[in-house]
């Protein structure tokens, strides 16, 4: 970017001096001008060469009471000096160079240093298309130039249409190389002769390469079908905005829409449909194509391409006809030439992509020099050269000179002869594939060859490429990412999907390879989009937020940042898209993200509307915490009061303690120690009641609160005194480290954090220390601490928070650097959670097919990975999955050992440790070891959990014929259930016991327990969620035991919450269907369906489709059930609903559903269903997985 000129430094010095004289903060100035933080910061930063716009100068002058005319005079001088500097620079890119070099002109609010900036070579490719001289096209060329530079125009598209050989490509190529001043051109020439340049993937890749060069940023990595379009649209918008800010215009030129092969494929995804209907920031488009084929069907009716006013007929150029005659004459000569000449032509025709001289020499048995000499003389006009696909490959490649020549050659050779040439290409590819795709593999075999396979629908070879790890590794070495490999896998899935009966084994193998490559977005901190917005990159930020696993939180943070930077229009548009949020807990995350981004008013407003006490308290505490961190003590105290009030209504003790402690911590940070201490005492009393887990869990939270109140020695001593549970001890020490860090003693806090044994909890504690230092403005300490964190995801989160605080401190350049580093670090982080769960899911499926050896190997791989998972809840669930696999295959000792090591989950009603122990006990029961099974379950002492587990074991014993022993355990389980003081929880325990015993055939006892649960259900007047959930359990138990009328009455009696009513009706309908009462079941499903259809809001309605779809499937209405499940847009819900439908359906319907599920990101969820439909596919998946991990 260079150094600021003297005039620019003077301008900024005046502005900053007046700001200091008035003793205003940056926030004052932002509020008075309505300008964003980034704009004001750049306008006043004397070290930055960014020149503010005239509008910015006017607004700042008015706010600071400065002379507009004087400031504008200096501003004009700064612009003049900048232009002189730009012209003098040897690297400057003149306006209108097509955007293929470094940017020139006035700099904009972007980073001065960007790593790995893309360099596009596409301009050189266009130069090969353009004629040496453009003859007879002055009028058309002038019309295009006028269209591009005209300030106001009713059209934003210009669509040239003419038959083949009219000179369309020559005209547009010439324009791309010679644009008028002030026009930046990005182009793509669709070429059917070149299989790698004739579909929307190629279009997006080539255009993004040019845009990345224009934006001075790297080409996006790890692109998938879901993210490629988003990145393209984001980059188009940013490039257009930058051009507009510099007084230029971005023009996108696309030649040859008629040659788009994607438009005619089975999936029907065209390049034309990617072209923006409403181009951003003054952007215009110039496109060309033949009158036929017509505009693709996936282009919307209202798209400008369909407007007759934008279409221009192009007369046939005389020069083009001369070239045509010459080319056709030479092609005829080649078709009738020597065997060698025919070979060259046949190979190039069959390849459907560029072959280099070296490629043709290897295929024909000649030297590269002979090939070059021959193609350059005998057939010079029939062929043209293009640059290689990848920048690090220097060889030019040959293709036929026109699409019509390609069509003629295909027709003349015929299918039989072309197949012979393809076989030679296949043999050539096999020779490299068998050697593991070595570094010397020709470019064509890594790119063009696969496009030829897809064009000829060679599915076995397509799948072979998509499942070759060595091939993917080589592509990563060349491109620096996995985008090319992911593109091949997606194309292979598409090819299989288009078959009448897709092979589930191949789809499963492709899913494994896709999983192995897609792991890059999982750890992008959801706060990063907000930071990028504050750094002036809102479009990119939104694209990143929409692909973030924590999408709601990321978008909410983005919304807050947009509001705090003054981008109200974009903020309101985004706010509208957040209204579909499916759960109150997610709304609490939205509120906290908004508050952290500075949008306190919106955050508090949304929090106040949350109905459920726990989520409301959580949301309000998040707002109060954000206010306290920014020094707004009075408002923080007021909001904390509201949060405290909400905690009074929380019925569940775990949740109540959690939020009371959170409010106490906020109050302590806000200086209100007396109030905070009283809340801690309340939490301590609640934590002293109930089961041991509650007592232990509450102890950890209270230790943290003591530290935040300033009693660090006491807190640390108590934490270190925990000797019976290392996980709880580690978590308590982490809480203490955070409290000490917030008091400013970073050395001691770091020492405490480092004493935590578990690596993930140690990393989290260090992250808390780093963030606390950043909040205190100790940025050197914060970054030094962050740099010592070995867990990439935690480090990335800490770096983003440091960057956020740097922005608030007006250190924009440093923040920008850290934001980039955070993204790089996050993308390097493996997703241990997904890895472990996927391994365990495949292992379980292998076990279900009887392949215990593979199951054992995969489980052994999954366990150490699971132990590296950061979140306690996720780690517990992954270890639970591993335990159940080992128990299923008879590894009881190891399974029990792992089960005992499972940490207590933060989601305290999951009880993964207890469920894991019960799974081991059930497996032992099935193996006949009843004593050991009973001993394991009796070790569980929590009444609520013990009743469930004992009942489950009683059912297993009953199925094993041990009825006397089963009855004794059932008695004990019932005794545990009756000892539960909370009426709602007691009813739920009785109902679950009834359902468990009914499944085991103990109908008489089950009916008795279900009746007792029903009596309790009818006595409950409070209609909260816990009570209603328990009523569902009672209804299901009654239905299982034949009490259909009572079950239906309970389900119908539930009015609110609405989702509980729908689930209850669906559950009873399912039980009726299983019992054979299809008429009654269908009636209840109809009622549930009518309830769902009555919901006006489509996003709200979608929440209830899953249980209704599952119930429909149980009544045998598979078609309706599948159709309903497929309307669910939330991916994980849709997958779960489709799995439930497939589980009920016959194998043919289930197979059809599995074809789509195996293409989903959550494909491993469907493996249990796959075992039933195609166990061989499970074996193939397990084998592929094992091979990848070796």
TrEMBL record:
- The UniProt record lists the HTH cro/C1-type domain at 15-71
Q: Where is this region: Disordered?
A: 82-111
| Entries under CDD domains matching the protein | HTH_XRE
Q: Which domain of life is it from?
A: Bacteria
Report biased composition (Polar residues) as residue ranges: 82-94
Recall the GO molecular function terms of this protein's record: DNA binding
- A Pfam family found in this protein is HTH_26
By its UniProt entry, which SUPFAM superfamilies does this protein fall under?
lambda repressor-like DNA-binding domains, TPR-like
Q: Which Gene3D superfamilies is this protein grouped with?
A: lambda repressor-like DNA-binding domains, Tetratricopeptide repeat domain
* Protein name, UniProt field: Uncharacterized conserved protein HemY, contains two TPR repeats
Annotated source species: Parafrankia irregularis
């Amino acid at each position: 970017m260079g150094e600021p000129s003297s005039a620019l430094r003077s301008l900024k010095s005046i502005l900053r001096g007046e700001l200091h004289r008035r003793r205003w903060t940056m926030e004052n100035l932002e509020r008075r001008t309505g300008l964003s933080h980034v704009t004001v910061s750049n306008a006043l930063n004397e070290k930055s060469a960014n020149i503010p716009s005239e509008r910015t100068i006017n607004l700042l002058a008015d706010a600071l009471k400065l002379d507009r005319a004087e400031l504008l005079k200096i501003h004009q001088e700064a612009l003049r000096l900048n232009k002189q500097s730009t012209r003098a620079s040897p690297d400057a890119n003149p306006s209108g160079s097509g955007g293929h070099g470094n940017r020139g002109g006035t700099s904009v609010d972007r980073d001065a240093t960007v790593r790995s900036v893309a360099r596009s070579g596409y301009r050189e490719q266009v130069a090969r298309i353009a004629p040496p001289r453009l003859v007879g096209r002055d009028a058309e060329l002038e019309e295009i130039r006028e269209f591009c530079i005209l300030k106001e125009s009713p059209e934003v598209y210009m669509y040239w249409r003419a038959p083949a050989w009219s000179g369309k490509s020559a005209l547009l190529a010439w324009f791309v190389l010679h644009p008028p001043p002030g026009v930046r051109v990005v182009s793509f020439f669709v070429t059917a002769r070149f299989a790698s340049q004739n579909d929307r993937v190629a279009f997006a890749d080539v255009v993004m390469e040019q845009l990345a060069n224009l934006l001075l940023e790297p080409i996006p990595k790890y692109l998938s079908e879901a993210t490629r379009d988003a990145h393209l649209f984001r980059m188009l918008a940013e490039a257009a905005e930058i051009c507009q800010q510099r007084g230029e215009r971005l023009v996108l030129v696309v030649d040859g829409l008629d040659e788009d092969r994607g438009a005619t494929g089975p999936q029907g995804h065209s390049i034309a449909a990617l072209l923006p209907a409403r181009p951003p920031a003054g952007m215009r488009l110039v496109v060309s194509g033949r009158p036929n084929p017509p505009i693709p069907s996936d282009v919307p009716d209202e798209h400008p391409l369909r407007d007759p006013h934008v279409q221009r007929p192009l007369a046939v150029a005389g020069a083009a006809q001369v070239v045509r005659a010459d080319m056709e004459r030479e092609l005829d000569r080649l078709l009738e030439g020597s065997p060698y000449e025919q070979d060259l032509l046949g190979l190039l025709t069959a390849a459907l992509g560029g072959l280099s001289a070296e490629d043709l020499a290897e295929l024909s048995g000649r030297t590269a020099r002979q090939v070059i000499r021959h193609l350059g003389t005998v057939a010079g006009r029939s062929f043209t050269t293009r640059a290689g696909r990848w920048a690090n490959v220097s060889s030019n490649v040959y293709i036929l000179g026109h699409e019509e020549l390609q069509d003629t050659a295909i027709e003349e050779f015929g299918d039989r002869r072309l197949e012979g040439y393809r076989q030679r290409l296949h043999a050539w590819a096999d020779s490299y594939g068998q050697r593991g795709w070595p570094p010397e593999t020709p470019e064509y075999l890594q790119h063009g060859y696969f496009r030829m396979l897809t064009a000829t629908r060679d599915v076995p070879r397509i799948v072979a490429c998509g499942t070759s790890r060595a091939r993917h590794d080589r592509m990563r070495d060349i491109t620096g990412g996995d985008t090319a490999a992911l593109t091949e896998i997606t194309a292979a899935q598409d090819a299989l999907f288009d078959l009448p009966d897709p092979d589930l084994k191949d789809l499963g193998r492709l899913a494994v390879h896709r999983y192995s490559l897609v792991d890059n977005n999982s750890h992008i901190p959801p706060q990063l989009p907000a930071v990028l917005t504050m750094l002036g990159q809102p479009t990119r930020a939104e694209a990143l937020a929409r692909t973030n696993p924590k999408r709601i939180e990321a978008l909410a943070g983005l919304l807050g940042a947009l509001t705090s930077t003054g981008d109200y229009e974009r903020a309101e548009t985004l706010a509208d898209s957040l209204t579909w949020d499916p759960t109150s807990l997610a709304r609490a995350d939205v509120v906290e993200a908004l508050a952290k981004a500075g949008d306190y008013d919106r955050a508090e407003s949304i929090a106040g509307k949350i109905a459920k006490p726990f989520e409301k308290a959580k949301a309000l505490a998040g707002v109060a915490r954000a206010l306290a961190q920014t020094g707004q003590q009075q408002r923080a105290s007021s909001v904390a009061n509201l949060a405290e009030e909400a905690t009074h209504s929380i019925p569940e003790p775990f949740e109540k303690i959690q939020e009371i402690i959170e409010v106490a911590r906020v109050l302590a940070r806000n200086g209100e120690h007396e109030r905070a201490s009283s809340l801690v005492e309340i939490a301590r009393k609640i934590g002293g009641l109930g089961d041991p887990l509650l007592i232990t869990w509450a102890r950890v939270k209270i230790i943290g609160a003591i530290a935040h109140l300033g009693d660090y020695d006491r807190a640390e001593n108590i934490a270190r005194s925990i000797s019976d549970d290392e996980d709880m001890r580690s978590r308590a020490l982490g809480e203490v480290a955070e409290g000490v860090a917030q008091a400013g003693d970073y050395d001691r806090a770091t020492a405490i954090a480092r004493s935590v044994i578990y690596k993930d909890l140690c990393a989290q504690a260090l992250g808390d220390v780093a963030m606390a230092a950043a909040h205190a403005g100790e940025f050197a300490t914060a970054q030094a601490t962050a740099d010592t964190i070995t867990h990439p995801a935690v480090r990335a989160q800490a770096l983003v928070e440091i960057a956020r605080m740097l922005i608030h401190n007006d250190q924009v350049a440093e923040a920008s650097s850290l934001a980039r580093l955070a993204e790089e670090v996050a993308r390097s982080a493996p997703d241990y959670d997904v890895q472990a769960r996927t391994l365990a899911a495949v292992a379980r499926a292998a076990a279900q097919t009887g392949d215990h050896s593979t199951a054992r190997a995969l489980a052994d791989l999954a366990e150490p990975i699971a132990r590296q998972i950061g979140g306690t809840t996720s780690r517990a669930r992954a270890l639970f999955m591993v335990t159940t696999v080992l128990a299923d295959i008879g590894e009881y000792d190891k399974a029990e050992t792992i089960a005992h090591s499972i940490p207590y989950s933060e989601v305290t009603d999951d009880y993964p440790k207890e469920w894991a122990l019960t799974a081991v006990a059930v497996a032992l029961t099935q193996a006949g070891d009843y004593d050991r099974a009973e001993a394991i379950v009796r070790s569980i002492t929590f009444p609520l959990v013990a009743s469930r587990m004992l009942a489950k074991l009683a059912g297993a014993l009953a199925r094993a014929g041990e009825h006397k022993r089963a009855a004794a355990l059932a008695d004990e389980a019932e005794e545990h259930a009756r000892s539960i003081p909370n009426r709602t929880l007691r009813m739920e325990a009785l109902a679950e016991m009834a359902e468990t015993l009914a499944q085991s055939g103990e109908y008489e006892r089950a009916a008795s327990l279900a009746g007792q649960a029903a009596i309790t259900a009818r006595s409950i007047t409070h209609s909260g969620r816990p009570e209603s959930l328990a009523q569902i359990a009672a209804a299901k138990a009654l239905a299982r035991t034949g009490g259909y009328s009572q079950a239906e009455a309970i389900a119908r009696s539930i009015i609110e919450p609405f989702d509980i009513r729908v689930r209850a009706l669906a559950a009873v309908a399912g039980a009726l269907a299983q019992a054979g009462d299809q008429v009654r079941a269908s009636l209840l499903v109809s009622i549930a369906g009518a309830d769902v259809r009555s919901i006006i809001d489509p996003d709200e309605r979608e929440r209830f489709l899953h249980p209704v779809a599952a119930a429909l499937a149980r009544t045998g209405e598979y078609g309706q059930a599948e159709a309903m499940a497929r309307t669910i847009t939330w991916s994980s819900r849709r997958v779960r609903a489709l799995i439930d439908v497939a589980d009920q359906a016959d194998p043919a319907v289930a197979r059809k559903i599995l074809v789509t599920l195996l293409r989903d990101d959550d494909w491993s969820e469907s493996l249990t269903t796959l075992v039933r439909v195609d166990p061989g596919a499970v074996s193939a998946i397990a084998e592929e997985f094992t091979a990848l991990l070796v």
